[in-house]
Amino acid sequence: MGADNQSQGLCVPAASETGRKRVLVLGGGFAGVYAALHLERQLGRRDDVEVTIVSRDNFFLFTPMLHEVAASDLNASAIVISLRKLLPHLSFVEGDLTGLDLRAKTATVAHGGLDGHSHTLAYDYAVLAMGSETNFFGKPGPRDHALTMKTLGDAMLLRNCLIDRLEEADADCMTVGGKNHVVTFVVVGGGFAGVETAGAINDFVHGALPFYPNIQHANVRVMLVHGGKEVLPELGEDLGAYTRKKLIEHGVEVRTGIHVQDVTAAGVVLPDGTLVPTKTVVWAAGVTPPSLLESLPCEKERGRLKVNERMEVPGFPGVWALGDCAAVPDLTNGGRPCPPTAQHALRQGVAVARNVCSALKGRPGKAFRYKMLGQLAAIGRRAGVARILGLKFSGTFAWVLWRTIYLSKLPRLETKVRVAMNWTLDLIFRKDVVQLIGPRELDQLTLPAFPLSSRQQVRHLQALQPQPRH
Length: 470
What we know:
alpha/beta; FAD/NAD(P)-binding domain; five-stranded parallel beta sheet; 27 strands; 32% helix
């Protein structure tokens, strides 16, 4: 085994020779980062404990604002912050989690791309906060022919695709009837991600049309397809109906009660066989737990790790699971699993960190209790919907409330200032239509479809750039 490991570039660190307890946080999303933030405050300067966070990206992404990057309301750098800057007293490893042995208490992390190598990290305590993946429901069509909205790379790719479609449709060689499918944009999924993405696409495309004289507003078609009775089911039918009404007023075509049959290179196939011709489909129809969880010898609930009220994984002492990858019982709601929201994940992260600190002292942890304060969504054209502490809000006030609350939730003052400045500029100036990825690179990246992850897409783009001669 040693020879094989050497040939594969596998690095296996020796067990801690200093006697320090090793805490491993797996995941750089809300759950993992907020657990790490609390652990840094409590343990970051201690010599007897080593805390390491593992993430596929070296930054924390504020995902609720992803659609604003796609709509050019925010620069991509405004909603990310370096994990090394955010957690200066913790160890950090960038890479993809490729293996986890709960019995041996080791995690395997790969980085460096195709010519990279792996590290096996040993731990005494582990916090599993591995998030979720886009759920394609076993359909190869959406996986191969649709964009997603989970990562910063997804938002940047969508923005560049929107501009590329406008450039193509504005060309003189396009006929009026032939250009409509180019500027037809379909979003599948009527939850928060789908609604906010559809509103953002609609705002961006119509806001950019003054720069494209050969495209009329009537040529543009933005469609939102949702399988449920009403969009935003989390907020109730009344706010969902209001959202649908406002989206339609803004020019978005909303179709509810429809489950997309397939997505092909030609467009979206509806259940009755109707084809909606389009070159741009965004799949936001839900998430699923990471495939790595399937190999773990743990009890699961709908694919998520089943944990107790202290978020401990039964049968594996010193292991906690939280966030989207775990079915955390909601003690304020009859013990049903907590919804996979950012506000639950960050509070679960703090609670788990406290339980880790208690375990280091040999004390039992505390049960997680949190009653959701409310939910908000931005639906475009400076309008929003919200349900907070049982009260319902809609319109411009809800949009201002959305921006105020999420601005306050951003970590670090510098991030808040960047976002506030971007928002101020967006109120004054028109949409920015600079295409950061050129059409040649975009074609190479997206053909035959979208087979690469966002991280692979970025690396692929770098490989496409001409290399300087020395």
